[in-house]
Amino acid sequence: ARGVVSPTSELCNGLGLLQTNKFAGLSRSRSLLRNKRIKNVGKRHKCNSCNASADSRSKLGRKSDVISRVVANPTGELALSSEQLVYNVVLKQAELVKEQIKAKDYNEAKPPDTVVPVTLGLLSEAYNRCGEVCAEYAKTFYLGTMLMTPERQKAIWAIYVWCRRTDELVDGPNASHITPKALDRWESRLEDLFNGRPFDMLDAALSDTVSKFPVDIQPFKDMIEGMRMDLRKSRYQNFDELYLYCYYVAGTVGLMSVPIMGIDPESQATTESVYNAALALGIANQLTNILRDVGEDARRGRVYLPQDELAQAGLSDEDIFSEKVTDKWRYFMKKQIKRARSFFDEAQQGVTQLSSASRWPVSASLFLYRQILDEIEANDYNNFTKRAYVSKSKKLVSLPVAYAKSLVSPSRNGALSKALEV
């Protein structure tokens, strides 16, 4: 079984990361730190609309109101749609941020006196290791984090590494040995680190991060649920099912990150709308991953496409396994790409609401991932045997464009302000 999920074993998580138990002694001081929870870093978000009713969802992006959406469950009874279930998580995280804002002005976080110098030294080493992993596996994003304040920078690294380790459980070299019970142990370990009891070096970095920022544990648990879904499910009957999966494995990252990124003090958007945009970016990225990797997933026996929409286009799993690009496939792919772009559009409207130092890495991620959809089209929708990717030259062109757009403050974006009216 994969060692990374066992709190009683030495860790070797498939990334080749050197693990250590030397943070076991952090429990007492981290618990004290947790009790003296430090507020988010940066200036206070002055948006008066943050006190708006939770029912006043922003008009960002798509026109549909998820609050009113219901679906029929197998028994014929009406139930909440996946979008509404996810939106409830958004509201919970946004409310946590509001409470933090009301409780205390944001100040640059300082280590509490309860942490002894040797602990601080080990913690610094932990964050540095997280930065190294981020630099190795997410080069463009890592470059963008260089613009952030040191505290935010380290926190984003810690979250990135935890997400990567979690993903590696079911998609790494030892994935065949992972069981639901192993994921249960990983979730128990998550709860421990949120309670100030990290098991290893990388856990300690995240434990410190969640003690300083208003980060809720639910998106982290939901990501683990996405890993469970990958163990038991390889088909999705409709987009409602696929949406929930995309939230679990990618949309959660947006909800984890916004408290770290911070909201621009000039923003007039509701806190909920900013979280909705972050959620949309995660959904868009995952849908893009799915469309890029259709052939690769099919060779693993997986089809991450809505079965009902395939049928409506006159397609089936067998058409995917045959790896033939037909007019029916092109028609189907055009609709899927259009949907992914609509989520990118929603996300784009929210990027300018983030703190100025956090916009570039998010803008760069959005720009580069969106271009993968262009490359699928350029490949004549052959995502069976051709892998769509953005060339280095195109990346070099996109980065300064993303940076220029990140300089636009919310107060200067009149069109956005109108779109965010509630």
UniProtKB/TrEMBL annotation:
Family: Belongs to the phytoene/squalene synthase family.
InterPro entries associated with the record: Isoprenoid_synthase_dom_sf, Squ/phyt_synthse, Squalene/phytoene_synthase_CS, Trans_IPPS_bact-type, Trans_IPPS_HH
Pfam family, one: SQS_PSY
Keyword Repeat carried by entry: no
EC class: transferase
SUPFAM superfamilies hit by this protein: Terpenoid synthases
The protein's name in its UniProt record: 15-cis-phytoene synthase
Cellular component terms (Gene Ontology): plastid
GO molecular function annotation: 15-cis-phytoene synthase activity; geranylgeranyl diphosphate synthase activity; squalene synthase [NAD(P)H] activity
Gene3D superfamilies linked to this entry: Farnesyl Diphosphate Synthase
Gene Ontology biological process terms in this record: carotenoid biosynthetic process
Pathway: Carotenoid biosynthesis; phytoene biosynthesis; all-trans-phytoene from geranylgeranyl diphosphate: step 1/1
Chemical reaction(s) catalysed: 2 (2E,6E,10E)-geranylgeranyl diphosphate = 15-cis-phytoene + 2 diphosphate
Keyword annotations from UniProtKB, A to Z: Carotenoid biosynthesis, Isoprene biosynthesis, Transferase
EC number: 2.5.1.32
Top-level taxon in the UniProt lineage: Eukaryota
Entry keyword Transcription regulation: no
PANTHER family for the chain: BIFUNCTIONAL LYCOPENE CYCLASE/PHYTOENE SYNTHASE (PTHR31480)
CDD domains linked: Trans_IPPS_HH
